Amino acid sequence: MSYVPNTSTEQQEMLRAVGASSIEDLLTPVPEAVRLKRPLELPPSLAEPDLRRLMLGMAEQNADLDHYISFLGAGTYDHFVPSLVPALVKRSEFLTSYTPYQPEVSQGMLQAIYEYQTMVCQLTNMDVANASLYDGSTAVVEGALMSVGPSGRGEVLVSRALDPQYRATLQTYANARGFTMREIGLDDGITSVAELEVAMTPETKAVIIQQPNFLGALEDVRGIEKVTHAGKAAFIVAITEPASLGVLAAPGDYGADIVAAEGLSLGNPMGYGGPALGLFAARNEYLRKLPGRLAGKTLDSRGQGAYVLTLQTREQQIRRERATSNICTNQSLLAVAATIYLAALGKQGFRELGEQCLQRAHYAQERICALSGFEPLFARPFFDEFAVRCPISVEQLNAGLRDEGISGGYDLSRDYPELGDAALFCVTETRTREDIEALVAAMEEVAGENR
Amino acid sequence: MSTEKLIFEMGAPGRRAALLPAMDVPTKPLDQLVPRDMLRAEPAPLPEVSEIEVVRHFTHLSQRNFGVDTGFYPLGSCTMKYNPKVNEEMAGLPGFARIHPLEHESMTQGAIQLLYELEGYLAEIAGMERVTLQPAAGAHGEITGLMIIKAYHVHRGEAHRDVVLIPDGAHGTNPASATLADYRTVELKSDARGGVDVEHLKQVLALHEGKIAALMMTNPNTLGVFDENIVEIAKLVHDAGGQLYYDGANANAILGITRPGDMGFDVVHLNLHKTASTPHGGGGPGAGPIGVAKHLLPFLPGPLPAKGRQGYFWEDAGPLSIGRVRANAGNFLVLARAYTYIRSNGPDGLRHVSNSAVLNANYVMRALQEYYDLPFDRTCMHEFVFSANRQKALGVRALDISKRLLDFGVHPPTNYFPLIVPEALMIEPTETETKETLDEFIAIMRQIAEEAKHQPELVLEAPHITVVGRLDEALAARKPNLRWQPEAEPAATKA
């Protein structure tokens, strides 16, 4: 099925109209030397029933969260999505539209983005938010790029407790753009403020931390803010778990200049981590340096309030090599889903979401750490993730848990060998007490067997 | 209704549209768990609305939006083809939609298999050695490709190569990506036939001898014209030590006809949200995987999907890799849609797609060229560019023609791009439109050309039937209002 509606008879008629006898006549501009003289080597076409069978077969090879109890977070979080969110976001007027460059027929998308920008500001207590970036990691990159400015030079200090994938992504961009990235070490699971203070130089353009950090611990954000601003650097806060904003202080409350967050879990399918949703918010002084699209409110020729993409002179389609970013396609549809989700949960629901995650995680941590051989890795406050020192390797532990239909915590030894046998557990509102008891029982059994 | 209230202006305190699970674990006061100064003093001031209000509001918003499912969308270079429904359903299967990216490989065999196979398909389509699926969009693919090219030059001890050549008709992302990779850009002129001016290329190569890092090009280019000199261009750039980057925005014209690898390109990105029918979603998400030729393989981002005796697994990148360009494996659910599309089409279907896209474009171009200036009068590929110069002389600009199309339920073409054509109207019908739709569009465009002559005010004042009239864009930029605020309305953001 190639979704070409015109029959060969009709196509013949069209060919005659343009004075060609065959399609080949229209392809003469493609030189013989570069023509592919064989069919593409791809599997043959499939009718929909066969296609479904194939796809379902592959999908069933994956352990989905409806059939598996998972305590895996580490940057990607399982949160409940009310039915109305997919029902609305799948409406094809949203789904099949392009970037709203023609505002007269794109008011729906533009208004939704304006509402989204507002909600991102409400969650973070920042002044302005853009219409989305690819994901949390590239949002952090854009924050760093905005801080180093058009020269592309300077230095960015990054907490070792920033998501390892984010650090890796930032390093890739730093190498290409020409700025340097230095890591700030940890002190009992959080960024060492003392080390940061020593590391600051006149070349330091930004300090990047994550709250809650990758190890689940809550950072001394006020201490970091003080040192960062004393050194005249931008304070960039990364957030991978936006549900934390239901109960934790917002970055705007503790002096963040730029917030770069992962919004995937706000009403979107987890989808093996993508498409994701890069949230990006900043203080007003950055308004004309922001990366990506912005929807704004204005008036139309009839004097009505209406919405339009604005401040486009920052963007690549106008500014080309002097643009503030190269981004064009973003993650609009996920932004719309996040808007619907946040509207559905609302002021009370979003706060309750944060409370539920926090309470359930603390209950789980208490239960797990009551087991012989398991103990908290750090004595730090946390939100819905916590690191646990394990009596056996996490690889062994998780292999045993998998046999029980449970996906255990993230194995921290992959990225933090200095932490020894440690697992990072995540407990959101989607994990019931029964799930937690099942985990605790299975952990006790697996640890006992392997000791 | 001509306006729709903001969600913040609806509802009442205490309303909500979703309940969370019953709390079934013992709880403690929050400030016993987290120090008080780390807690939020006030909840985020999100709306307080009921389910029916949310549903009506976003349904109304959707009704104020135009998509491919609504009507004809001949937006040049954007490939607004039909987005098959089966793709959506397949991407929504819980086995794809509800899986964690860090889940153990043994539990995500189907996901890695899908990516492994898709990588192979895209490599075959592009004529490349291997592909990374990480880039989330075309521009993301561009920067990834340039980083690979840079790493290659650095590895060869040629870090001094710092010039990227970009034709004057190129997409704005090309120069923006080059800057991001810390390159200088040099613009190449187009020749009288709309291709790269080969003589100018030779001069530029001589002028920047030893400095050339890459040429970024799309072929067919943004005029919809296939550059017949591609073999010579590739040789000239390679001889000068540069690499060739293929911007795949226009790949819908070439499936099974020619491959960037066979044209001499070293790096290729494909916009799956264009060529592979995944929906644009009002601006995203897309997917911009890139393929590389064999000599660039060591520099690809990792990890890459692999197949071994134990099944599928993620293979770490080697020591020369540029590293990852985002978290996780890419826009997986977009990739799953693209996979579905490619399997649905098969090799013959994909060839039929491009054949039909080329035919539809030529059909519309020839039927309208009497009415609009065609600066490059050649057989086109999947799209073509008119100039509204003739109408401008009558006081009607490309923008006005675009706005008038809205009155007929047709989405306007891309206008004022490429920059090398004055009053440009860039038209890409795509292969999924019926002959009747094309005929209707032809009739409308002819009518508008007549209106420009005889009733210009009808065109100048368009659109007439949309929910809003033309927007005051200057006001939007002068007094940015980028968010709702409770107090003053309209609330201007302090700039």
Can you name the CATH architecture of the largest domain in chain A? 3-Layer(aba) Sandwich
The CATH homologous superfamily of the largest domain in chain B: Type I PLP-dependent aspartate aminotransferase-like (Major domain)
CATH class type of the largest domain in chain B: Alpha Beta
Residue-averaged pLDDT of chain B, rounded? Answer: 96
Q: In the residues of chain A, how many domains can be counted? A: 2
Run of helices and strands of chain B: HHHHHEHEHEHEHEHEEEEHEHHEEHHH
Distance between the termini of chain B: 32 Å
| Shape label of chain A | globular
Shape of chain B: globular
What portion of residues of chain B is helical?
Answer: 25-40%
Strand content of chain A: 5-15%
Key phrases:
heterodimer, A: alpha/beta, Aspartate Aminotransferase, domain 2, 2 domains, seven-stranded mixed β-sheet, 14 helices, B: alpha/beta, Aspartate Aminotransferase, domain 1, three-stranded antiparallel β-sheet, 16 helices, 11% strand, disordered C terminus
Describe, in plain words, how this protein is organized in 3D.
The complex is a heterodimer of chains A (451) and B (495). Chain A has 451 residues and is an alpha/beta fold. Chain A has two domains: 69-79 and 346-450, Aspartate Aminotransferase, domain 1, CATH 3.90.1150.10; 84-341, Type I PLP-dependent aspartate aminotransferase-like (Major domain) (Aspartate Aminotransferase, domain 2, 3-Layer(aba) Sandwich), CATH 3.40.640.10. Chain A has helices at residues 8-17, 23-26, 48-59, 84-89, 92-95, 107-124, 136-148, 164-177, 193-199, 221-230, 316-319, 332-369, 394-403, 433-450; strands at residues 69-70, 128-129, 155-159, 180-184, 186-187, 190-191, 204-210, 234-239, 258-262, 278-282, 295-299, 305-309, 375-376, 385-389, 406-407, 410-411, 422-426. In chain A, helix 7 (136-148) runs parallel beside helix 8 and helix 12 packs across helix 14. The radius of gyration of chain A is 25 Å and the shape is globular. Chain A starts with 7 loop residues before the first helix and ends with a helix. The model of chain A has no long low-confidence stretch (mean pLDDT 97). Chain B is α/β, with parallel strands linked by helices. Chain B is 36% helix and 11% strand. Chain B contains 16 helices and twelve strands. In chain B, the strands form three sheets. Chain B has a seven-stranded mixed β-sheet with strand order 1-7-6-5-4-2-3, sandwiched between helices. In chain B, strands 10-12-11 form a three-stranded antiparallel β-sheet, with helices on one face. A two-stranded antiparallel sheet of chain B has the order 8-9. In chain B, a hairpin with an 8-residue loop joins strand 11 and strand 12. The longest helix of chain B is centred in the C-terminal third of the chain and has 37 residues, at 332-368. The interface between A and B is large, with 216 and 213 residues.
